[in-house]
Give the backbone structure.
Amino acid sequence: MSKDVKIIEEIRLIAEDSGKRIDQYLFSKLGYSRSFFKNIIDDGLVLLNGKICKASSKVNSGDVCLVKIPDESIDLTPKDIPFNVLEDNQNYAVIDKPAGLVVHPAPGNNSDTLVNGILHRFVINDDENCRPGIVHRLDKDTSGVMIIAKNRDARQKLSSMFADRDVIKEYIAICSGNPERDSYKIENYIGRCKNNRQKMAVVDEGKIAISNVEVIDRGKNIFICRVRIFTGRTHQIRVHMSHIGFPLIGDELYGGKKVMSYGISRQALHSSKISFTDPFKSEFVSFESALPFDMLQLIAKYGLKY
């Protein structure tokens, strides 16, 4: 949980029945959405019998739930935030998100986000109050291609396509290490790290996560690769590459201090290409983003080819 999160209310509940997931139980008792409860549970703001829990944790009769409600007041004022537009039609836009830009307002950053920027650039006709236009996310320090829905119908159709894995998502990553093979298929389960709530981890009871990795070129203890993800778990590529021993350059959270000496100040990860069948025209479309300058500099510095 961020130190900047302001808690505006604490609610103590004693469960009177058993068997419900805690996110479902809180949804039935309090006036917020299930996604709200999942988010604050993931942020460590819900204690079940005094301990941090998961959204899937079950409550039993007599259990004590302490819910800390964060101040989620957000500012959706349109702002002129720079980003490139790759496609712009009546139903959706495709943009090139710069590194360092948070996607949507949240406690601790409620106004200088991509959402504020897209409300300045586009007309968004959607009833999503907090994250208008957003159908998928990139981490703050990941750059590259994102799709923006311009209306409710587009958001629902595009969100379903992501959920059904009908969107092809390709990334370019620069990683530490010397892989023995040219390709890897990584398939396991990712969930919240038990020891550090800021991190995700490969765990037994997480959600299925699948990534394919193809090495493009190698240098001395550094390589560039193309990663296709078939699922969209939080920090998926960062977790997977760290898990197999090749953390992303610049990703201190998953690679420690050893990956911070290469001359780039953020994880070297770029959403390079998104492809899908346009649900409004039934045509296969593909959108690509060139590597940003900081990653090109890193490639040149270590003599890699891309």
